Amino acid sequence: TEVTEKLEEVVMIWTKQIRQVLVESEQIRREADGVGPSAELEHWKSRMSSFNSLLDEIKSSRVKKIISILQAARSKTLKQWKELDGSITIAANEAKDNVRYLYALDKFFGPLANASPVMMEHIPSLMNTVCMIYCTSPYFNTSERMTSLFLKITNQIINTCKTYLCEG
Fold it and tell me: How far is the CA of 37 from the CAs of 18, 102, 126, 159, in angstroms?
């Protein structure tokens, strides 16, 4: 029972740390005015990396051994652990899925940032791709995510037009 109590303490510390990561990942992002759509891709790539690292740690043999010992001891801490494990998996899947969909937009980011009104020819294809993301992505199809993406696309168009006007 002494070993079980020590292992439960360890799992409770991990649980607290994982909860903190999840809470921080859901907080509203503060971004500079005028940030473009590539920032959205970078955000999700960073988030994917963080959650994948966390998943790798959770699936490590050391953690699995501790969890199996606590399962054998019928520890009550495992209920919280399993919930968090599921939350981390969902967050990792969301980030991976969002990166995959945003990469479909990546080919438009260069022409969009090009300091020329020629970028306008790319807008219909860009909007079709955004529509496809909205219609097919299980995670990115919320008004919050789409508003953020459209804001960044609009910022990029405005910045490109400003640059074009100032250079011309």
Answer: 29, 9, 12, 12
